[in-house]
Amino acid sequence: xxxxxxxxxxxxxxxxxxxxxxxxxxxxxxxxxxxxxxxxxxxxxxxxxxxxxxxxxxxxxxxxxxxxxxxxxxxxxxxxxxxxxxxxxxxxxxxxxxxxxxxxxxxxxxxxxxxxxxxxxxxxxxxxxxxxxxxxxxxxxxxxxxxxxxxxxxxxxxxxxxxxxxxxxxxxxxxxxxxxxxxxxxxxxxxxxxxxxxxxxxxxxxxxxxxxxxxxxxxxxxxxxxxxxxxxxxxxxxxxxxxxxxxxxxxxxxxxxxxxxxxxxxxxxxxxxxxxxxxxxxxxxxxxxxxxxxxxxxxxxxxxxxxxxxxxxxxxxxxxxxxxxxxxxxxxxxxxxxxxxxxxxxxxxxxxxxxxxxxxxxxxxxxxxxxxxxxxxxxxxxxxxxxxxxxxxxxxxxxxxxxxxxxxxxxxxxxxxxxxxxxx
Length: 424
Description:
The chain is α+β, with helices and mostly antiparallel strands. 51% of the residues lie in helices and 12% in strands.
């Protein structure tokens, strides 16, 4: 069985297999005669979208449309959205949905356009309607991303309880639980989210193994994809005269390994505090190669390259004797530093000039790999700025372990007990 799973995993990482899976998914339930004859064109479109090569995408989409294959509108809308051409993107995805109104990925794309054009309620109704046609958890993810305040959450939660009336009496699928929790946190209702995770952890105890979701094949991380994503961001930021520098695990990998750390799931960079998250988001929308993920904090912007690699952009605030950056639950402090260039992944990037001091403040003995290092508990220069979000993080880690058939970390359990959580 382990050999079988290893074989399947390797097969999924094959580019051709990945493209076949995507094409099959998008063509499922689409009535096209002799679908297979369009596969080469669809392969080229999907491949070019992950680079991206928008002119080639447009050309191949037009080939499909000229043959009456409406999926060309779907892919063309994706390309146009990446280029921030929202009106054109809406035109093409609306035309596609006229023929296939229950195509969930098409509805998600239109809902995103509506959200970006300040038509959030229209986006909510689109997503609410698609729930009657399929049970994809991704719909709840998109719905949760529409929540910005308490009234939004009330609307979301009413819909959620209609679909899952027993969510406080039974363990939910882990991803589904995350979507409800994220909606609450986006509405600043961290106490709801914390209470919810306490209940979910308790309900998950003693249940049969329920495998937690893995990232989609398109978001699996490797050095080649990461180098491409980081290089594209550098090229774009250089055009816009935006300075960024490597930090945290990405800097550690750069200095100690000369490459990205194997266990890293994203790239960490910093920018100075003359930029805001909203300003950066508006700039990134015009990049043509990055998606802006939902904003949870004024201190960090998360973006995803079209090849699936995620980059966390942290605003660095400069004070006389303290440079700091933050996320929802944590704040990290460093001694003031200058920047200098350093060769990494065949490119020149900026890093803290005294990287030894920076890494020592972040990791202590950074020269020696520490396999059990927990970035939330072991980082010397970190302080907790939101205890509820810190506790939510720990409960999520433990619930994820249970869903994956593993034993929760005794260390996480002890930290929760130290914070007054009753787990026994």
